[in-house]
Amino acid sequence: MASDAQPDDDRQWSLESLNKAYQQGYMAGLTGQPNSNLPYTAEVPGAAWEAGWDDGHGQLLRQQKSA
Q1: DSSP per residue over the chain, as a string?
Q2: What whole-number distance in Å separates Cα of residue 36 and Cα of residue 63?
Q3: How far is residue 4's CA from residue 35's CA, in Å, rounded to a whole number?
Q4: pLDDT on residue 9
């Protein structure tokens, strides 16, 4: 995707907003929600959410194995 085709919100993120996206993704993964529930359309916050989902889902799987 060309940089001029990026939505404006993809260029306006902060560490706080990325942390929030990560935490939302983590909780989604931890509670067993599918990663197709990605609530972000912008690439950078979406990547933070997906990273959180991966970590949360991994934690969920570890908890299930030890139960």
Answers
A1: --GGGS-GGGS---HHHHHHHHHHHHHHHHTT--GGG----SHHHHHHHHHHHHHHHHHHHHHHHH-
A2: 22
A3: 27
A4: 53
Residue 25 inside a domain? The answer is yes
With cut-offs at 50, 70 and 90, classify the pLDDT of residue 10: low
pLDDT at 63: 94
This model's pTM is above 0.85: no
Asked whether residue 4 is domain-assigned, the answer is no
First to last CA, the chain: 44
Range of the domain at 25: 14-33+40-66
Structure-block tokens of residue 33: 């929600």
Position 61 in a domain:
yes
